Every structure is written in structure tokens, then in C-alpha cells.
């Protein structure tokens, strides 16, 4: 037998046997040339790039880990802070303790993690596509590993969070499959490890929330689980993530609650498909193996399984409540959250036969309460309710479902400030109960869609600011989608038609605008007092998010939707091009690479329509071709959070944002190559024999990998350091204001490290050139305008520098340093009247914080022969800064220049009182007194 096994193992093709190691080695070698690189763009966000400026957290090493979990990801001295990514900061803190500040070690870790991710990706695809030819996941993984668009993620130390989050997401997906019917869990840890991996992914980077619907879609590829059920409830989390961006809570608080919501949704699906009886029978069978009297004392074999189940749940719930209570006693705010969460464990105990139902009801009611207290967009209530409807579509005739639905609609009606929304949802519930026949449901839902559309037309035309053109476009698009779904799916799957029509009802009802005078009452602020109680504070932070400038994004949360969609169309067009032809790549985009345009300009509306149809079409294709449908859904979902519609991204787009969407593209490309060369896609027994492959396929894959690898290898060298990267890209980024500004800023910084005078001069002249280009692209770019003036001042171009200081000061009156720069140049040029004028423009509120301002201003007045004004300014400064001796010295010198030695001595003595160690001043006073005698 052993000989046969060895013979079989030897016959196994080497490509199949070592495919994971091949992928790992291929990915590692592709990016090995990044290891010698130095620190580059934004690395200072996570580690120490300059020994003189240690990182506020990671430079402290392992000892900073507790503090890392209490602090935002970014925080500066100006009070700005954003995001919450503790896991990635923990890795850098550990790295700092072990290796110190070493960019080469950081790059090595990034490369190893990326190689691990690619091998894990092959493992996931091989499992999920096990009904297909194994060549598809192998080729897709090789293309993904080589795709040049990933260079920013791997070559940039700071972007380790992207790699780690994807690793956790893929590992979570593997764990998720263990809950589905084909993989019934037999180990207790299967329940806890997958949710933990999801939590780690979100704590690594909050945008990894997009992996939730993607991974759940992947998991449904080979199971009989209702796709729409698991898909909609996961999409809800992503939608909720978008809406809470406008809340007043810190990023850390938001992410912690997102983790809770993801865990609840995940657990609800796990409970729905997990067989409790199997678990408890397993426990009993293990206990039977125990010898002696302990067996009979520990458990009675005649005890009903449900009783043991309830006892276990009761013990777990009591333990969690106890832990939460102890934390609350010790003033730890997370204890309140733990107590809230324990409510979900009580649900299944109320009715063991309907544990999944009660569990979901509690989740639904809790989410309603949570979204209300978080002050998020009321539209979220609709998505919560829709997820609830879909989850129990097969229980519409259950009395318990009706009771739960009534309570849910009542809460929705109570908390929502627009009563027609609740009324529309209530109508759906009632119609669904009375007509169990799916075809009748479809007809009634279609009528509801039509009525809602008519209401929309009236409200948009007569109430909102929409134009007739916008109204027609909206209505035609919505009706077209509804008719497409009805005619395409009506005879094939009436159940899905019903659910999709309900989606339209929800969306239409939540876009209806209702005049105030039509609303008979508003109960939004008349809820029970318990609902008005604030949520516990998870992390205290007085800081606010960093403002996004126009050069970074042309839209914000308050921008009209037509501009947001216009921006999204431009971004999606460039993303599509980079997926197919990843050249040239850029370290930054921003304004004016992306401009502020309307969705009605050019082909923008066509692009948005294609994107929407790609999503709808991919979802429909899941029924006919899982690989094509899945690939399209990954692209659409992966890009959704980076379209700038829901939240503005700095730069509006970036190469690293394609890290997840490129996964779908690579799967689709691999599948296309298999189909092109007519290889049996369902041949699951393929043994990786290269001799059996068509020559065209081998050359096509090898050629594609060669081209991608060359581009990747070359791009890695661009990320050597700041100046190398900026110089490589600036040629095609001449229309990017921020790209030119960043290049110029780093040219100036590095000029101070250069020892060759000629190189110093050339670097500063080049910086001046790019500052001017940044201003040319965006004339209101204050930072570039001010830095241009500073650069010209250093280059001794005083006339131009003074002019640009004045322009910058007028551009931003709240930045007094620009006026001071112009005043200093005027003084050095002997134009004291101009200097006095510039000093006088500084706002009063900034003068009181700067003692040097009064000293320089008084000196300019003195040189301009305005002696009395000079003395007045110095006396004002001495009053504001009584412990600053220079004011008394300046007054004394002024009196001395006027030959008023007595007054000079008085003020010199005041200065000496403040600073008795000034021996020179003592000698001056003694000499003045001697001269008087």
C-alpha cells in the first residue's frame, strides 16, 4: 500500500504539487527589488522616517500597544485626527521593538505578506471553484500577483494595512464556509475564529467592510443558501458604513459598532444553518466516553437536548452579563456595549424551535435603536427593514412573523421623520401576508412601484429643486429597471422577482420628497426617554477629521448629486483603463486630473449607466454563469466605496483602491483565456500537465505575465524614495495641482540635505517651477502660493517673493505669516513704509500670541521715523508679555537714540529686573550713569 501511495505521489505533476509555493515564490521575486528601497510617500503615518521626528505611537515599541487601541490612526498638533486602524499600528510597534527604524525590514515584511496573500488567494479560489477547471484559479492568481496596479500597495510601507485586511478577509472566508451546509462544524473553535478574523480585518482598515458582501457572495457559489438573503444583509452593513460617516461619533466608535453589527449578521446566518442538535449530541457522545460516576452526575442521557441547549445559553448569557457589569462598575464604557450585545443571546432561549427567528428579530429591533441613537441618515431604517423582510420571506404566514413585523413597522414609524416611508413599508407587509401566491405578490408589488413612481414625479416637480430633465431621467431609469427585472425573471423565478420588486419599492419610497404641510405629525423627537439616552463613549477624542481641500477632492458631502456622479464617472473611466492597461500609474491624482463636472456632461451618464448595469447584470449572471457574475460583482462592490459618491477620498482616486476590484478582473481574465482556447471549464480532474495545454494558452499566459512582471518590476524602482517617485510620475501629472506641490515641497526639504551648492540651487529652482505649475493649475492654491514665496525668498528673488507673499496673505487673511514674510523682505530692501503697511494688515487676534510681531513691527516703525508709534507698540507688547525683557530693551534703546538717557536707564533697569544675568546690560546702565555725572 505504501509503495502504491509513493508511486501515485511521484506521478502527480510538479506544477500541481508545488502550485502554492510557485505562487508564493513568484509574488515574492516580483517585489523583492523593493526591499532596498527607502521610506517613501506617507510612510511617516505608521513609522519613524526621520530619527528627529519619532512616531507618536509606534516609536515606543511594544509598550505602546495598549495606547494604540485608544488612539486614532492619525493625529497631529493642529487637532486633526481620522480613522481607527490599531492592528496595522501594532505590527509596526512590534517591528520597531525588534528591528528599530529599518525601512528594508519593513519592505521585506510587506513583500512576505503579499506573497502569503497570493498563496491564500489561490487556496480560496481552488476551494470555491472546485466545480471548475483548476487552471482557472491558478491562472487568475498568477495574473493577480503580477498585476502592476498592486505596486503602490506592496512597495509603500504605509499600505501594509491593505494587505493585512485582505489576508484576514480571505482567512475569514475559509472559516465562513465551515458554517454552511456542506461543511458542518465539528470543532467548537469554528464558531469563534472566523468572526475574530473579520474583526481583525475591520480593525486593520475600516474600508475592508467591503469584503463582507464579496466574501459572502464567494461563499454562496457552491451552496444552496439563498443568495439574496445573505447578500442583502451584508450589503446593508456597507450602506450603513456610508451613512454613519455623517454622524458626530469618532471613527473609532463607528468602527467598533460596525464590528458589532457585522458579528451579529454573521452570527444570525451561522445560527440559521447550524444544527444545534448535532452539537449537543456530539457533546453527549464525548461525555459517554468518560468512565465512572462522573458521567451520570454530569449529564442524564434522558435529558432532552433542548434543555441542555437552554442551560448552556443561560450560562453563557449570565457570564457575559457579569463581565459587562464588572466593566461598568470599573467605569469602562465598553461594558455597556457588552450588556447590549448579551440581549441577542436571550432571544433563542425564548423559543428554541424558532431560535433563528427570535435572534433576527432582536437584531432588527436593536439596529433600529442603534441607528436612531447614532443620528444617522433615516434611509438606513428602510434597508434594515428590507433585510428583515428578505430574511423571513418564507415565514410570511407565521403568526410570530406578523407580530415581529408589526413591532418593527411601529418602531420605524415612531423613529422616522417622514411618515410616508413607514406607510409604504407597512403596505408591503400587509400585502405580503394576505397573498401568499408569489405571482399575486409580484402583481401587487408592481402596482406599489407604479404608485410610488407617480408620487415621486409629483414631489420632484412641485417640491424639490429637480428640473424637468432630471425628473424624466430618474423616472425613465427606474421604470426601465423595474420592467427589465419583471420581464427577464418573471417566468423563471417568481420568488426573486418578488424580492427584487420590493427592493425597488424601498428605493423609490425613500427618494420621495414630502412637503411639511402634508405631514400630519412628526414623532421623531417624541420617542420614549430611554431612546434618547446617549450611547456609551468607546474612545474619547476631541479632535476632528482632517478637512479635504479642493485640490484633493472637487466634491464633498454637501455637493449636489449630479456633481458627485460626474466625478464618479471620471473616476470609473480611469479605473477601467488601469485595470486593463496599468500604465502610466501615478502616486497622486486629484484636481485637475479629475474635474468638477455634471453627470449630464459628455458621456458621464453613459458611464454611470454601464456601472449600474454591470452590477445588475452580474447579479443576474450568478444564476447562469457563476464565475462571470461573481467577477463582475467583485469589481462593482470593490469600487463602490471609492467612487466619491458616498464619501470623498483624498485625491479622488488612487492605484491602491484597485487592490480588491482587480481580484474580480483577474478571475474574469483567466476565465476568458480558458474559454478562448476552448478548454473544458468543467474538467475538475485536470492534473496540471503542461503538455496537454494548447500552445496558444501557454504563450498567452506567459506573455501577459511577462508584460505585467516587467511593468511591476520597473515600477518598484520608482518607489525608491520620494524624489524618485515624484520625478518618475510628474511628466504625466502636470495637470495635478497637488502632485506638483508635493514634488516641489520634497525638493525643498531635500535641498537642505544636499552638500553640493550647484545641486542645491538646481533643486530649488526646480521646486520653484513646480510650485508655479501647481498655482497655474489651481490659482487659489494657498499652500503652493505661500511656499513659492518662501522658495523665491531663499533664492534671493526678493521682488517676486514679496509679491507672492502678499498674494498668499490676501488669499488667506487668517495666515499672518505671509504678511510677516512680505514685511521682512520690505525691511531688508529699505522700504520701511511698505513694511509698516504689511505689519498693520496682520489681524489683531493673531498679534496677541506672537511677541516677535510687536518687536519687528516696532522696529519697522522706528526705521520709518514713526518714533511715537514705535514706543506705543513696544509698550503694548510689554503689557501683553510682561516676562519678555526685549520690549524694555527696545524702549530703552529708542530713548537712548533720542538722547533721553534718564528714560533709557529706567527701561533698561526693568529689563534687568526680568533678566538679572544680563551682565552686558548691567555695564550699559553703569556707563550711562557715569556719563550723567
Could you explain how this protein is built, in words?
With 933 residues, the chain is an all-alpha fold. A two-stranded antiparallel sheet has the order 1-2. A hairpin with a 5-residue loop joins strand 1 and strand 2 (81-82). Helix 9 runs parallel beside helix 11 (211-219) and helix 12 runs antiparallel to helix 13. The longest helix has 26 residues, at 103-128. The relative contact order is 0.07. The N terminus is likely disordered.
Low-confidence stretches: 1-10, 181-185, 224-229, 271-284, 289-313, 343-358, 375-383, 389-397, 408-427, 487-543
Largest sheet: 2 strands, antiparallel
- Structural classification: mainly alpha
Compute the CA-based radius of gyration.
34 Å
**In one word, what is the shape?**
elongated
The portion of residues assigned to helices is: 55-70%
> Strand tally, please?
2
Number of helices: 42
N→C terminal distance: 122 Å
Estimated share of beta-strand residues: under 5%
Going across the major beta sheet, what is the strand order? 1-2
Amino acid at each position: 500500500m505504501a509503495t502504491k501511495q509513493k508511486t501515485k505521489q511521484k506521478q502527480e505533476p510538479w506544477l500541481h504539487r508545488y502550485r502554492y509555493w510557485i505562487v508564493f515564490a513568484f509574488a515574492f521575486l516580483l517585489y523583492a527589488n523593493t526591499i532596498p528601497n527607502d521610506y517613501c510617500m506617507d510612510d511617516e503615518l505608521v513609522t519613524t522616517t526621520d530619527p528627529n521626528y519619532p512616531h507618536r505611537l509606534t516609536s515606543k515599541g511594544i509598550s505602546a500597544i495598549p495606547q494604540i487601541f485608544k488612539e486614532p490612526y492619525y493625529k497631529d498638533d493642529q487637532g486633526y485626527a481620522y480613522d481607527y486602524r490599531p492592528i496595522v499600528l501594532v505590527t509596526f510597534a512590534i517591528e520597531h521593538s525588534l528591528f528599530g527604524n529599518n525601512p528594508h525590514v519593513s519592505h521585506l515584511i510587506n513583500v512576505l505578506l503579499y506573497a502569503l496573500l497570493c498563496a491564500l488567494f489561490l487556496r480560496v479560489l481552488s476551494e470555491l471553484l472546485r466545480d471548475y477547471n483548476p487552471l482557472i484559479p491558478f491562472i487568475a492568481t498568477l495574473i493577480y500577483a503580477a498585476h502592476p496596479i498592486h505596486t503602490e500597495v506592496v512597495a509603500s510601507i504605509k499600505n501594509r494595512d491593505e494587505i493585512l485586511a485582505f489576508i484576514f478577509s480571505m482567512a475569514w472566508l475559509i472559516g465562513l464556509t465551515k458554517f454552511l451546509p456542506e461543511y458542518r462544524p465539528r470543532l467548537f473553535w469554528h464558531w469563534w475564529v472566523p468572526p475574530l478574523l473579520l474583526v481583525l480585518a475591520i480593525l486593520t482598515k475600516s474600508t475592508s467592510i467591503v469584503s463582507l458582501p464579496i466574501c459572502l457572495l464567494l461563499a454562496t457559489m457552491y451552496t444552496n443558501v439563498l443568495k439574496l438573503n445573505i447578500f442583502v444583509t451584508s450589503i446593508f452593513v456597507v450602506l450603513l458604513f456610508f451613512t454613519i460617516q455623517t454622524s458626530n461619533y469618532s471613527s473609532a466608535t463607528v468602527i467598533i459598532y460596525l464590528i458589532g453589527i457585522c458579528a451579529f449578521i454573521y452570527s444570525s446566518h451561522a445560527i440559521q444553518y447550524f444544527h444545534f442538535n448535532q452539537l449537543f449530541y456530539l457533546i453527549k457522545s464525548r461525555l459517554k466516553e468518560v468512565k465512572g460516576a462522573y458521567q451520570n452526575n454530569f449529564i442524564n442521557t434522558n435529558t432532552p437536548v433542548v434543555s441542555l441547549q437552554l442551560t448552556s445559553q443561560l450560562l453563557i448569557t449570565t457570564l457575559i452579563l457579569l463581565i459587562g457589569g464588572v466593566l461598568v462598575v470599573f467605569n469602562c464604557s465598553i461594558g455597556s456595549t457588552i450588556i447590549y450585545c448579551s440581549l441577542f443571546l436571550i432571544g433563542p432561549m425564548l423559543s428554541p424551535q424558532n431560535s433563528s427567528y427570535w435572534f433576527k428579530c432582536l437584531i432588527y429591533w436593536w439596529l433600529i435603536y442603534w441607528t436612531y441613537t447614532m443620528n444617522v441618515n433615516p434611509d438606513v431604517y428602510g434597508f434594515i427593514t428590507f433585510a428583515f423582510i428578505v430574511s423571513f420571506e418564507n415565514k410570511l404566514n407565521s403568526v410570530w412573523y406578523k407580530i415581529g413585523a408589526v413591532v418593527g413597522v411601529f418602531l420605524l414609524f415612531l423613529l422616522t421623520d417622514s411618515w410616508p416611508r413607514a406607510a409604504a413599508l407597512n403596505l408591503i407587509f400587509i400585502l405580503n401576508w394576505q397573498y401568499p401566491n408569489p405571482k399575486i405578490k409580484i402583481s401587487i408589488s408592481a402596482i406599489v412601484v407604479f404608485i410610488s413612481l407617480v408620487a415621486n414625479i409629483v414631489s420632484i416637480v412641485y417640491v424639490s429643486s429637480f428640473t424637468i430633465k432630471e425628473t424624466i431621467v430618474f423616472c425613465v431609469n427606474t421604470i426601465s429597471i423595474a420592467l427589465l427585472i419583471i420581464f427577464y425573471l418573471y417566468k423563471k423565478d417568481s420568488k426573486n422577482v418578488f424580492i427584487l420588486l420590493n427592493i425597488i419599492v424601498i428605493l423609490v419610497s425613500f427618494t420621495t420628497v414630502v412637503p411639511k404641510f402634508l405631514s400630519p405629525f412628526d414623532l421623531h423627537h417624541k420617542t420614549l426617554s430611554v431612546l434618547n439616552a446617549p450611547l456609551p463613549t468607546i474612545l474619547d477624542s476631541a479632535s476632528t477629521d482632517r478637512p479635504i481641500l479642493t485640490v484633493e477632492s472637487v466634491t464633498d458631502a454637501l455637493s449636489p448629486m449630479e456633481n458627485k456622479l460626474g466625478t464618479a464617472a471620471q473616476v470609473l473611466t480611469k479605473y477601467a483603463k488601469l485595470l486593463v492597461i496599468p500604465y502610466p500609474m501615478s502616486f497622486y491624482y486629484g484636481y485637475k486630473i479629475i474635474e468638477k463636472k455634471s453627470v449630464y456632461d459628455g458621456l458621464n451618464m453613459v458611464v454611470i449607466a454601464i456601472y449600474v448595469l454591470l452590477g445588475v447584470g452580474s447579479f443576474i449572471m450568478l444564476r447562469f454563469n457563476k464565475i462571470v457574475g461573481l467577477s463582475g460583482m467583485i469589481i462593482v462592490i470593490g469600487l463602490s466605496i471609492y467612487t466619491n459618491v458616498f464619501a470623498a477620498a483624498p485625491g479622488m482616486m488612487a492605484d491602491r483602491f484597485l487592490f480588491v476590484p482587480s481580484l474580480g478582473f483577474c478571475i474574469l481574465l483567466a476565465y476568458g483565456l480558458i474559454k478562448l482556447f476552448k478548454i473544458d471549464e468543467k474538467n475538475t480532474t485536470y492534473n496540471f500537465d503542461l503538455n496537454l495545454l494548447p500552445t496558444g494558452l501557454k504563450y498567452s499566459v506567459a506573455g501577459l505575465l511577462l508584460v505585467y512582471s516587467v511593468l511591476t518590476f520597473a515600477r518598484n524602482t520608482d518607489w525608491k524614495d520620494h524624489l524618485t517617485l515624484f520625478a518618475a510620475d510628474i511628466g504625466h501629472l502636470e495637470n495635478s495641482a497637488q502632485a506638483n506641490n508635493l514634488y516641489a515641497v520634497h525638493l525643498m526639504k531635500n535641498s537642505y540635505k544636499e552638500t553640493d551648492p550647484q545641486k542645491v540651487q538646481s533643486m530649488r529652482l526646480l521646486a520653484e517651477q513646480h510650485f508655479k505649475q501647481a498655482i497655474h493649475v489651481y490659482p487659489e492654491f494657498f499652500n503652493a502660493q505661500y511656499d513659492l514665496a518662501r522658495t523665491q525668498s531663499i533664492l534671493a528673488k526678493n521682488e517676486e517673493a514679496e509679491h507672492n507673499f502678499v498674494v498668499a496673505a490676501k488669499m488667506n487673511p487668517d495666515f499672518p505669516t505671509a504678511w510677516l514674510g512680505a514685511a521682512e523682505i520690505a525691511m531688508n530692501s529699505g522700504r520701511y513704509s511698505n513694511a509698516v503697511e504689511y505689519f498693520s494688515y496682520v489681524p489683531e487676534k493673531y498679534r496677541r500670541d506672537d511677541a516677535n510681531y510687536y518687536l519687528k513691527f516696532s522696529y519697522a516703525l522706528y526705521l520709518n521715523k514713526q518714533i511715537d508709534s514705535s514706543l506705543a507698540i513696544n509698550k503694548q507688547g510689554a503689557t501683553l508679555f510682561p516676562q519678555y525683557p526685549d520690549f524694555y530693551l527696545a524702549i530703552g534703546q529708542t530713548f537712548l537714540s533720542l538722547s533721553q538717557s534718564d528714560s533709557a536707564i529706567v527701561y533698561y533697569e526693568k529689563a534687568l529686573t526680568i533678566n538679572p544675568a544680563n551682565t552686558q546690560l548691567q555695564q550699559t546702565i553703569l556707563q550711562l550713569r557715569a556719563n550723567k555725572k
